[in-house]
Amino acid sequence: MQPKPLFAAVDTNFLIDMAVPRDLVHDAMQVVRSRVKGCVFAVLPTVIQELRSISRDVDSPRQRQALVALESAVPRWGFQPVNFVPVGHGIVEVIADKIRDRGYLPQEERNDALILAEAALLGCSLLLTSDAHLLDVPPGSLRLLMDSHSVSTPLIVSPRKLVRDFSE
Fold first, then answer.
1. 143: CB partners within 8 A, 6+ apart
2. Most C-beta atoms within 10 A of its C-beta, which of 39, 120, 136, 156?
3. Which domains does the chain have, with CATH numbers?
């Protein structure tokens, strides 16, 4: 019997940063891949929507990076896009609303709350981000909320911390 793979979710800024050669996120990805054999890097539905939205913006470096991320996430970087059946989307919205209602994320950070809830519903062990709002979510309180919905609580970690603490 094969062990269940570990899922690591990535947020939008992680993928945009992947489009920059030799960025810290490349090192972070290598750290995870070298330490966790068979790790699946998941691209969540809200991340895909955000990348699509950014890619339609006025021509800018960020817009071009979003296009590279959309074109490269699966074939070049080996990431796995995921989606949820409609019931899953409803559960994600309920959890995301509670994350914001409890003040773990500001009300205006709806997409960040959705990304966190999607990672939890998928059973991700990690959520890789450099977004300060997500990195400031209180882990103990978050765990209680996620446990009350019978979903996992991903460890929210920045690429910088991952590389600093786990590089060989």
1. 153
2. 120
3. 7-166 (3.40.50.1010)
